[in-house]
Amino acid sequence: MPQQRDTVVVTGTFEPMSLEEIDRAIRVLPARSQSLVLNTLVDLLKLDPSLDLAERAPDGVQGDLSIRGAAFGQTLVLLNGMRLNDPQTGHHNLDIPVPLESADRVEVMRGSGSTLYGADAVGGVVNIITEPPQVTEFRLRTGFGSDGINQQRAAFNIAAKKVSEQLTFARDFSTGFMPDRDYRNLQFASVTRLATDFGNGSLNLAYMDHPFGADQFYGNFNSWEDTKTWFAGVQQALGAKTSASFSFRRHSDLFVLYRDQPDVFANHNADESEQLAVRRREEMSTAATLYYGVEAFHESIISNNLGDHGRSRAAGYIAADFRAIKRFSLTISAREEIYRIFSAAFTPTLAGGAWLSPQWKLRASASRAFRIPSYTDLYYHDPGNQGNPALRPESAWTFETGADWVPSARLRGDLTLFDRRVTDGIDYYRLTPSDIWRALNIQNLDFKGWEASLRWTPSTTHTLDFRYTALHGTQDTIAAGFTKYTFNYPTGSGVFQWQITPRANFVFRTRVGALARPAQSPYALWDLYAALPRHKVHPYLQVTNTTNTSYQSIPGVPMPGRTIIGGVELVVRKH
C-alpha cells in the first residue's frame, strides 16, 4: 500500500521534498496514472475546491483560474517550474500548450509564492510536471460525443537509460452546444530528457492553436477569438549543487467583437516572454541548507489596440532552511525583484512546522506577494472597457496556519486557516450598469477562509476524498458602484470524489462538486467516468453534468448541459 507521506513534490520548496516535510498547503493531483478517467487537465483542477475555474466553456477553452478568491491575474501557472502566465492578460493563463498525455502530475500550492517564483503568485501556484516515461509505448485515443465533439490524441514514448523522449498530440473539436460556442483545440508537445556528465537536462517544446466562438464572453456580443501559444524551455543541472534554465513563450490573440461583422472591431495582439534562472544550494550542516539564485525576465507586446511595449525585470533570492526530520522545520527566505528603474518589490516568507507526534503536524507561514499590471490592465480600450496607464502594482500579505493528520497510510486529513490582505488590488469599476468598466486600484481587500480535507483509502482499489473551502472577502474603499471580478469568488466550494478499481481491468470515478457565489444561486455538478484498461484496447465513457444542471460560472455566460463522450484507447507497449 503506497503511503501518501512518500509523495515527493517540487512546488513550494527550493528542492524536491516529501509532502509531509512541506510547511505550505500543497496538493498533488496525479495525471498520467488517471488519464483514462480524465478528459483534460481542467478535470484535475476541478478536484481542488480552492481552485475556481470561472469557465466560459468546457475543458479550459476559456476559463479564469483563481486560487482562494484571488483574481485570475493573481494566479501563477508553471510548466516544470517555468512561467506560462501571459503578460497581455490573465484571461490567457489557461492556454496550456501541452496535452494531458504529457503531464505526470499537477502540483498546487495555495497561498503566496512570489518569494520562489516572482510576480503573479498572489493567490497561489499551479505547476504542471512532466516526467520521463517509464516504458517505451505508443498510445492512440479517439472519442466522439454530444455537441459534435470529436477527439483524437496520441503519445509516443521512448524510455532508455541515458535519454527519453515523449511526443504527444491532441485535437479536440466541437460544433458547440449553442450558436457561436464552437471550438477547436490543437496541441503538440515534445519532452526530451538527457543524462549528461554535468547532470540531468531536459528540453520542452510545445504549440497550441485554439480558435473558439466567444458569444457573451466579454459582454453582449457574438464574438470570436483565436489564440496560439509557442513554448520552449531548457533545464540543465550543472553539477550536484547548481542548475540553470531558460524558457521562451510566444502568444498571439486575434479577437473579433462581432463574428458576423469582423470589420467593426478587432484586436490582434502578440506577446513574448523570456526567463533565465540560475540556482544553487549549499549544505551548511546536516540540518541546515542555504539556497540562492538570480533570475531575469523580459516581456514585450505588439498590438493594434494596446500599442507596442516592453519591460524587463531582474531578481535575486536567498533562503535558509533548517529541519530535523519528524521534529521541526523552519524556512526563512526573501526575494528582491526590480521591475523598472528605481522600483522594486521585496517579498519575504517565513514558514515552519512542528510534529506533535508521528501522526500530527502543525504548520504556519507568512508571506508577501506582488503583481504588476498586465498590458490589458494598462492600455486596453473597447466600447465597454477602459484600461488605466497609471495603475500601481498590487501587493498582498498571506498568513496561514494549519494541521496535518496522518494516522495511517489509508487515512489523511488536514485543516488550514488563511488570511490574505491586498493593497492596490487591480480590478475594473463602474458607478452604474450603463457606465463602462474602468481599471483602478482598490485598497484594503481582505479575504479570510478555511480549507478542510479527508482522504480515506479503505483498500488498494477504493478511495474516497472529501474537500471543502469557505471564503469571505471585504473591502472598505468604494462606497458605491460595482467591481467586475473581485467579488465573484466562491463563498463555499465542496468536492467529493470516489474512485474504485474492483479488478485490474476496470476503473470507475465519480465527482460531485457544489459551489456558491455571492448574489448567485448555488449549484452542484455530477460527473461520471469509467474505463476498461485491459490488454491493448481500452474503451472509456465520460458523462459530465449528469443531472443536466443549468449554471453559469461567469454571469451571463451559460454553460453546457449533460455531455457524453465515449471512445477507445489503443496501447502498444515494448515489453
Would you give an account of this structure?
With 575 residues, this protein is an all-beta fold. Helix content is 2%, strand content 59%. It is built from 3 helices and 36 strands. It has helices at residues 41-45, 114-117, 375-379, and strands at 8-9, 17-18, 25-30, 51-52, 66-67, 75-79, 82-83, 105-110, 124-129, 137-145, 149-159, 163-174, 183-195, 200-215, 222-237, 242-256, 266-285, 288-303, 309-324, 328-340, 343-355, 360-371, 381-382, 385-386, 394-408, 411-423, 425-430, 437-442, 445-459, 462-474, 482-483, 492-503, 506-516, 523-531, 537-544, 563-573. The strands form 5 sheets. It has a 22-stranded antiparallel barrel. It is globular. Residues 1-5 have low confidence and may be disordered.
Chain-wise SSE layout:
Elements: E1 8-9, E2 17-18, E3 25-30, H1 41-45, E4 51-52, E5 66-67, E6 75-79, E7 82-83, E8 105-110, H2 114-117, E9 124-129, E10 137-145, E11 149-159, E12 163-174, E13 183-195, E14 200-215, E15 222-237, E16 242-256, E17 266-285, E18 288-303, E19 309-324, E20 328-340, E21 343-355, E22 360-371, H3 375-379, E23 381-382, E24 385-386, E25 394-408, E26 411-423, E27 425-430, E28 437-442, E29 445-459, E30 462-474, E31 482-483, E32 492-503, E33 506-516, E34 523-531, E35 537-544, E36 563-573
Parallel strand pairs: 6-9, 24-28
Antiparallel strand pairs: 1-2, 3-8, 4-5, 6-7, 8-9, 10-11, 10-36, 11-12, 12-13, 13-14, 14-15, 15-16, 16-17, 17-18, 18-19, 19-20, 20-21, 21-22, 22-25, 23-24, 25-26, 26-29, 27-28, 27-31, 29-30, 30-32, 32-33, 33-34, 34-35, 35-36
